[in-house]
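Here's a chain:
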Amino acid sequence: MTRIVITGIGAVTPVGNSFHESWEAIKAGRTGVGPITRFDASRIPWRVAGELRGFDPLPFIGPKEVKRTDPFVHYAVAAAVMAAGDAGLIDGYGAAGHNRVRSRHTGYLGTGGIIIGSSRGGISTIEHALSRNPSLNAPRAVSSLSLRLSPYLMPATTIGMAASLSARILGIKGHCLGISNACSSGLNAVGEAFRLLRSGYEGPVLSGGSEAPICRLCVEGYGRAGALSAIRDFSASRPFTRTRDGFVIAEGSCVMVLERLDAAVRRNACIYGEIIGYANTTDAFHQTRPDIRGEAGAVRQAVAAAGVRLEEIDYINAHGTSTPLGDMTEAGAIAMVFGDLTPGVPVSALKSMTGHMLAASGSLETAFTAMSLKEGIIPPTLNVPPRDDCCNIALVREVTMKKMRLALTNSFGFGGLNAVAVLKKFP
């Protein structure tokens, strides 16, 4: 069977403006959660987020595209270009205003593919456009006046723009797809790239997720749904603890380069890890409430697809958003699948440091899982005490060194959408 490996990773996150900077922060247990600065949140209960700090899109995108596209596109392009560079597919990228990269393997990258997921797409740009046009809510006589809308509003905010602009800048002319599958979108993008390559596609395929949801519409929307934490300090993201009260919204992107092993070996690529199993399921249960049977079923399917035994799983990178019901359901699903093995399988929840980057979390946590296997390091879960007895899993609270061969990463979303992947240490 065709083996699929990860050969490049790029990311912009609340804990770093590159993937390797982010990984070092995660190993050190540094949080990216802090006060919201994107808008005035002083009059609403939800006042913290995981924001990017010091990110500049201009090295990756020309100034015209920066103005004409949403930040979630900027983040995706930056992550995609860095991933391609990390994989040795390009020599570098131009300064501000240069939308061409120097390809090292023009034919290979040119016929490759790209799949990027996003839950909210260009929602902050849509909110900005609405805020500039109060006549939209005015009486009919006033609302008949011309709106001050950018001609780029629609293309700038569509889910597929993250993949298509990244493809244009990198010169990719093959498979191109945008996925919107709630918070599982990023891992779904990685999983579908894995399946595409397994089906015989030549590759490489860049895949991941991107989000820029820190705007009032998103924050209040998730807040009114009861999903966000009202805690107002950096400890607000508390996965699997008794005091958790919701997730911390965050932004950013992570994109990985996936290739067939034979192709990666031919060009002497650095290999971070191997993806050996993937499952994508739905609970068919409820719009917002997760179902323990659905999540457990997704884990079982991924393990079966990987062709491994449960007792071989050395580590689980949990979805772990810090919502009361979500964490209890995931912990229950892990216990349902692993049974008596549960106390011996270490689990960490990295959203305690990054916040919940929605679609981007699934791809970022997949990349972190690959690094955990590669380096033999399990990152900590922050803000854990007091433990929740209803979440009876082996939660890792401190950096732990452990030789590992196989790991799971989970990603779940509204609508009962489940994505699970199994990764293997390489070689």
